[in-house]
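Step 1: inspect the first sequence and its tokens.
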Amino acid sequence: MNAPLSTVLVLGIAASLANLIGGWIISSRKEVRRPVLNSLVSLGAGFMLAAAILEVVPRSIQVNPSASVVILGGYLFVHLVEHTIATHFHFGEETHGDQMLRARVAYSALAGLVLHTFFDGALIAAGFWISMRLGILLFLAVLLHKIPEGFTAASIMRASGRGRTAAHFATLAISLSTFAGVLAVSFSENLIRHVLPFSAGVTLYVAASDLIPEVNQETGGGIFLGVFLGVALFFVSEVLLRRILSG
């Protein structure tokens, strides 16, 4: 691995804590300002999209000649989960009405979110097997949408009529799942050839099919520009990391 294991684990914990922070915000307040959430979502969408297309997909092809098939498998996997197990899965603060009052729907949506966050963690660890720069870039890409994920998990429980305990349970579940993904890949380099392209497909789906459609529903130039700012942030981060790590 191109980074000390302790560094990878600390960053994995940081990503997991961001889930908890997002859940805590929803659990502790009656209202969350929608523009703040939308800004995070749009910024994260742009950064994740750039990271997936410009870094993760090319790296995946380098480590696995059959990467294109695995990438497609990762994309279709999330599509299947969101339309079967978790048919009410969304990013952002949930505003569901009666349909989210059923416990089965709420917990199936949470199950889908847990699966997604596992691959968040796996992507971070896989990046560090390739290079320190890629690992940090993927950590930043994942981190940017971790607070909205926490919003989602907690608000699903709130929308289903459950209280703070259930909201805390939901955010703890996705937090632990993120760290489990980091652990699963941190100790086995052989997993990279499969995990990296699969995670690339997952990331592409989340960025292009989940986050950006959420952004497109909002009005205002600021939200629209957030995606481009996220892409710009990716390029700035990449340049800075190249200089720091080569210096």
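Step 2: inspect the second sequence and its tokens, then contrast the two.
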Amino acid sequence: MAAGSTAPTPTEYIVHHLAHLNSSGHAQKKIVDFSIVNYDTVFWSVLMAVLTGWLLYAAARRVSSGVPAGRLVGAIESVVDFVHEQARSIVHGDVRMIAPLALTTFVWIFMMNAIDLIPVDLPGYLGGFLGLEYMRAVPTADLNGTMSMSLVVLGASIYYGIKIKHPGGFLKELFSAPFGKSLVLAPFNFLIQIIEYAAKTVSLGMRLFGNMFAGELVFLLIALLGATATWWGAGLGFLTGLGWAIFHILIITLQAFIFMMLTLVYIGQAHEGH
């Protein structure tokens, strides 16, 4: 919080840490509000995108024939091979553009999720040092951010559906599946297709948001435990925080993997007919 302010209550502490630096100039009252821009979500997501691009580029520059790869290159190569195999097994078509998309998705989301491992008060402290009242650092714990990414996946699945089936075939499928070709059934087919697209998009964004928001909230509760003016509270807060951080590494990796796999599944479905 701002310098010189009195110590916040636990409720004020949590509410303040869950508030975004946004275009409205005050704390965001809704979980999702597309009428305002969360500047912190944009900043940290773009920063992690730049770091992701640099990391992959640096690994690619170090690859050379006949020279043993270092640890970084070896780790990246393992991820690349794994993602490429997943893309080939799920998408029945040309994956030269799809596999890099899946790789970028996995690494980028992992990097954004990993911000949750830094001390919860550090982003707010840095923001306060710069004169900013709010600073929330985990983009994937913002529903606006995760829904934006799921909308991109929706756009990619529609794009590949039109590309593979051509515009006529794509529109024909919208009105003929899943109940069959019939003028009477066409409106129901179209409604089911719209519901399916909407459900996949909402569930994709909500799943990532829900898990990361819950993890962030647990870190805040542990920080409150560690802030108690007792030695056992501080010690217990450190131990529980360390334990949760170690377990959270699995969560941030798993959530990035799930988002990547569902991206491949939805694009793979666009390559197939009903």
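Step 3: confirm your contrast with the notes below.
The CA atoms of residues 139 and 251 lie 15 Å apart. The longest helix spans residues 186-226.
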